[in-house]
Amino acid sequence: MSENLKPDKSMRAGRPDRSFDDIVKSEKRRRAILQRSKDEEPFWRILLHFKGTCLRLIIEDGVFWLTVALYWGVRIGFWVGDVPDFLASIASAGDVAVIGGFLTFFLTYYVGQMYGNFSAQYGHSMNAEAKMFNVASVAANALPQDRALRLVRFLNAAHAAAYVGLSPNEYPYKTFFLTLNEEMCFLTEEEIERMEHIDMQSGGSCYQELCVWAMGEVGMAVNDGIITDALTAAALNGNILEVRSSWDALYGTNDQPLHFFYIHFLCILTSMYLPLYALSAAIGAGSGSNKYWLVDVVTFLILLLQDIFVIGLRLLGARMARPYGDDDEDLSVLHYVASTWVATNRIIAAAFPTKLSDSVESQIVAKRKAVGDAFMVAVQKTGKSLAAGDGDPEALTIAQTNEQTEVFMAERAAKEAAAEVNAGDAKAE
Known about the structure:
GO molecular function: chloride channel activity
Strand content: under 5%
InterPro entries: Bestrophin-like
Radius of gyration: 34 Å
Pfam families: Bestrophin (PF01062)
Transmembrane segments: 54-74, 86-111, 260-280, 292-316
Helix content: over 70%
Keywords: Membrane, Transmembrane, Transmembrane helix
Structural class: mainly alpha
């Protein structure tokens, strides 16, 4: 195992850092779960899944097993006769149902807030990638390849550094960033020393400095006379600032999550409501001569449904609260960093066509499918002219095509006007 893959003690978490192998395995599980949503599996097959579902988390929840034990404890007591009959009058299913209605409102509102937060942070990540693609596209045309590669290298390093500072326990510097740096060559040894001096796991200072380096590369290109157009420099700097702004938004959301008061309030409600519901359901299932095993089983299934609904919503909201953690439902950070690195470097390495000719474009227009009646006539005339060899094909310009189109439009307008006159005469007669 290489040095970067060895677990290192984390002062923040009090436990060994995640290894890079663990990060890769987690990423593969996430991508596989996402693929299920894309595949549109049949209903019965969806029900058979266990990993990446609410069931795996619900069976680990203590409140779930408390309600199950409470329900069957009361029911077995009724069957063996150890439960006093007066218990039948201490629970009111109607009152519990009212409480459940209020709880349902709060839970759905909570999940809605968490989903909005989750989607917004995903949007910031995708916006940062899009702006990096913009920078690479402009740099590929405006800068020499060595300078363009350096600019993109700084941004890709900032991309990985942003997630290290955001989630240092899930994406540690030594096992995540340094391993990627070995494979993708984000930074040189001298540049790595600067990052270690700042401490990448202490916040967003590293990615912000790397963005400054990227803007400095643009400034040097302007000073050296490589970029002479102010709009090009503004486009590069503007997109770099947009990249940094997107990551700043992630840090802002992470610094101010949903109020703990709200989360604690929901936990108290669910931990008290479900045992009360289980007790009410167990007593309401019948006692004395009104005991039936079928009723017990059906009532228990209803209790399970209630547990899945209440506990599932609470866990779903909690899972979406931190999109850049190590849960299988979290966002695919490793995929984002790796795919962006590949895409930006491919953009820089783009090879332009060498043989370009106006006549080739005219021939393509003549061959392709028409996009409308007026354009069709112009294309047909152009095609006939080229096929007959009339004149020099290089001299055929867009202005000539537009002139032919205008003639056709005028002819069609005249025909429509004549048709309207004839229709008016027919009505008069």
